[in-house]
Amino acid sequence: MDPLSCITDCLVEICLMHPLDVVKTRFQIQRCATDPNSYKSLGDSFRVIFRTEGLFGFYKGILPPILAETPKRAVKFFTFEQYKKLLGYVSLSPALTFAIAGLGSGLTEAIVVNPFEVVKVGLQANRNKFTEQPSTMSYARHIIKKEGLGLQGLNKGFTATLGRHGVFNMVYFGFYHNVKNILPVNKDPTLEFLRKFGIGLLSGTIASVINIPFDVAKSRIQGPQPVPGEIKYRTCFKTMATVYQEEGILALYKGLLPKIMRLGPGGAVMLLVYEYSYSWLQENW
């Protein structure tokens, strides 16, 4: 697959799925169900955002993922293959090899995407009309000027991002490759495609369920704090503990439905595009 088609594929997917990402972030940063501004359900969130912020409200913070998605995917799959090769020198079972290589690829990927995530979450949390919020570049400059480039600035929430991507890729790649190798291959190309798609869908869904507490912690750390000027959510596990103590265990799973709706099918498509393009390149190059 040529670079242009890869970029186009990423762009189309982001434009289609970004509204779900905005809604997911909004659910994760809202702290109290009794707050009159809180969303009551997935449908309610779409209605309120459309009514108060307009159609473009669903596309707040879209530029950072547009800029980051193609290099992120390249890092994800390239490092997964490299870690898999390195682990070939160690006596590990194939199941463990896939999982550890996935973990390594997720940790590496997190380093690339975290600054983009900080900017994206801040823009997504803004409930003003799209035309009234700062541009992506001006908001990034504001963060750098006020908080710097470090772990309290453009890289805040770094440990939560490491956890989110590391755990996701560990389950995503580990489950997909292990289950795919267990289930029999179909000779019919259509059935084989559906077999892989189903496994990919399950991989993205299960990975989303397991890693979402890290995602909630990341959104709380990178999003607006409850009291302006006072940092309540600072580190990953302390944030998880605070959310659990104050809001209960289910609060660590806020935004799960839109996350699954985005990363379940999205994860399946991403794996299949990679697999088929990788096979094509091996056959033709």
Automatic annotation (TrEMBL):
It catalyses: hexanedioate(in) + 2-oxoglutarate(out) = hexanedioate(out) + 2-oxoglutarate(in); heptanedioate(in) + 2-oxoglutarate(out) = heptanedioate(out) + 2-oxoglutarate(in); L-2-aminoadipate(in) + 2-oxoglutarate(out) = L-2-aminoadipate(out) + 2-oxoglutarate(in); citrate(in) + 2-oxoglutarate(out) = citrate(out) + 2-oxoglutarate(in). One of its GO terms (cellular component) is mitochondrial inner membrane. GO terms for molecular function: antiporter activity. It comes from Equus caballus. It is found in: Mitochondrion inner membrane. GO terms for biological process: lipid transport. Transports dicarboxylates across the inner membranes of mitochondria by a counter-exchange mechanism. Can transport 2-oxoadipate (2-oxohexanedioate), 2-oxoglutarate, adipate (hexanedioate), glutarate, and to a lesser extent, pimelate (heptanedioate), 2-oxopimelate (2-oxoheptanedioate), 2-aminoadipate (2-aminohexanedioate), oxaloacetate, and citrate. Solcar repeats lie at residues 1-86, 93-182, 191-280. Belongs to the mitochondrial carrier (TC 2.A.29) family. This is Mitochondrial 2-oxodicarboxylate carrier. It is a multi-pass membrane protein. Keywords: Antiport, Lipid transport, Membrane, Mitochondrion, Mitochondrion inner membrane, Repeat, Transmembrane, Transmembrane helix, Transport. The gene is SLC25A21. It comes from the Eukaryota. Pfam families: Mito_carr. Its main location: mitochondrion.
